[in-house]
Amino acid sequence: QQPVQSPQAVILREGEDAVINCSSSKALYSVHWYRQKHGEAPVFLMILLKGGEQKGHEKISASFNEKKQQSSLYLTASQLSYSGTYFCGTGSNSGYALNFGKGTSLLVTP
Amino acid sequence: NAGVTQTPKFQVLKTGQSMTLQCAQDMNHEYMSWYRQDPGMGLRLIHYSVGAGITDQGEVPNGYNVSRSTTEDFPLRLLSAAPSQTSVYFCASSRSGTGNNSPLHFGNGTRLTVT
């Protein structure tokens, strides 16, 4: 079952912050975040595991709320290179593949 | 270091034709999967494999067949192509299951058009 991402799209000016949310109706064991540029393959950003800490990657970080069954991706001081579509993927303890959300399109303008 | 290699990059088929999308990885990953990506739908899981000889269905398996005879290769077969199968197909591999700290490595995709 696909997790639900919000918002569907967001436009930022360079330097602004954004939050992308991912929620699931099923209990989560792991949440993966990927970014995809137009015409390219998705690229891994980070993984959050149940019971794990908030992860960070440059100016991009994420949190994982097990009780609410949701994760949030935080992009701070956005750069033009952050433009793309962001996907969350959810996995179970015994899972072998991810269920991805429909994606959030992010456009950073000068 | 090739990673995950998909061939072909582009393919046009006529309705009813069959074909095989190739996927190979050189990272000795046990887990491999196929996704299709359609506008506004995200990535949807077609089939996956947890090792040679073991495959299972994902969310949208109808019209597709897979086999895993070696660790390296995981081909996806379209039995009788339909226009609804027009999509971009991604193959992915990972070292271990999604419950572990193991990311998916994606191939560059195959863009398929069925007329």
> What is the H-and-E element order of chain B?
EEEEEEEEEEE
Q: Radius of gyration of chain B, Cα only, in angstroms?
A: 13 Å
Main beta-sheet annotation of chain B = 7 strands, mixed
Fraction of helical residues of chain B: under 10%
List the uncertain runs of chain A.
Answer: none
Mean pLDDT of chain B: 94
**Radius of gyration based on Cα positions of chain A:** 13 Å
- Which overall shape of chain B is indicated by the principal axes computed on the Cα atoms? globular
Largest sheet of chain A: 6 strands, mixed
Task: Kindly name the structural category of chain A.
Answer: mainly beta
Taking the alpha carbons of the first and last residues of chain A, their distance comes to 37 Å
What is the count of helical runs of chain A?
0
| Tally of contiguous helical segments of chain B | 0
Q: Proportion of β residues of chain B?
A: over 45%
Chain-averaged pLDDT of chain A? 89
Overall geometry of chain A comes to globular
Biggest interface: A-B, 27 and 28 residues
Number of strands of chain A: 11
Descriptive notes:
Chain A is mainly β. Chain A is built from no helices and eleven strands. Chain A has strands at residues 4-6, 9-13, 18-23, 30-36, 43-49, 55-57, 60-65, 70-75, 84-91, 99-100, 104-109. With 115 residues, chain B is mainly beta. In chain B, strands 2, 4, 5, 6, 9, 10 and 11 form a seven-stranded mixed beta sheet that branches. A four-stranded antiparallel beta sheet of chain B has the order 1-3-8-7, with no helix packed on it. In chain B, strand 5 (42-51) and strand 6 (54-57) form a beta hairpin. Chain A binds chain B through residues 2, 29-30, 32, 34, 40-44, 47, 49, 87, 89, 91-103, and chain B through 31, 33, 35, 40-45, 48, 50, 56, 58-59, 90, 97-109.
